[in-house]
Amino acid sequence: MKTKLLILTAAVAVAGAIAAKAQTVYSVNVVGYVNVTLYPGYNLVANPLNTTNNTIGSLLANVPRGTMLYKYNNATGLYATYAFEEDDDGILGWQPNGNATLNPGEGAFIRNTTGTNLIITFVGEVLQGVLTNTLPTGYSIRSSMVPQTGQVDSILQMPSNSGDLIYKFNPTMGRYDTFSYEEDDYGILGWQPQSPVINVGEAFFIRRLSAGEWIRNFIVQ
């Protein structure tokens, strides 16, 4: 899965004024789009930009017929399955419905059934400020809440505990690359064999022995 991030505009809006100090406070809203290339078969995908409607019916309204989406439920350990096909009235869309969410920080498997590479485009706003992504006990699919590529610890700033596992899906090989948070041969705690790099628009499986929060204070400079 290849991704390309293209920031289109930065809209500067007045957020307020502090009269006592005669200052004006500004906030920057950055909007753009991300192209995500799906390989034939399964791809573990994230929505890296926020919109007013983060449902698959809105985000993925123009995928080819036969595209499949699988969203994992951490509580049940099961997948909810959605197919992009015609309903009983011959209307093309997500079945049984398009109401499943794909919010920044979440992720889902998308199965590309076309036999060739497929590009999907996410359009929206870069989330900023203090962002919290819950990390439940057990297995879950997670992603960065901001469109940034990097190592999960040093760049994406995800907290980790001894015994955590990350499964990064390799769509070209159809298998997972596994990373464990444990001591190396020198007794130093860290990701082994190295810290996994997560791309923009990519999600991953994580297994945690205890629940936690992935908190980032992110501001576009």
Descriptive keywords:
221 residues, 5-stranded antiparallel β-sheet, 2% helix, 17 strands, mainly beta, 53% strand
Care to describe what's here?
This protein has 221 residues and is an all-beta fold. The chain has a domain at 127-218. It contains one helix and 17 strands. The longest helix is centred in the first third of the chain and has 4 residues, at 56-59.
Summarize the entry for a quick read.
Residues 7-26 have low confidence and may be disordered. 2% of the residues lie in helices and 53% in strands. With 221 residues, it is mainly β.
Please describe the topology of this protein:
Blueprint: E1 2-18, E2 23-38, E3 41-45, H1 56-59, E4 68-73, E5 78-86, E6 92-95, E7 108-112, E8 118-125, E9 129-135, E10 138-142, E11 150-151, E12 165-170, E13 175-183, E14 189-192, E15 197-198, E16 204-208, E17 212-218
Antiparallel strand pairs: 1-2, 2-8, 3-7, 4-5, 4-7, 5-6, 9-17, 10-16, 11-15, 12-13, 12-16, 13-14
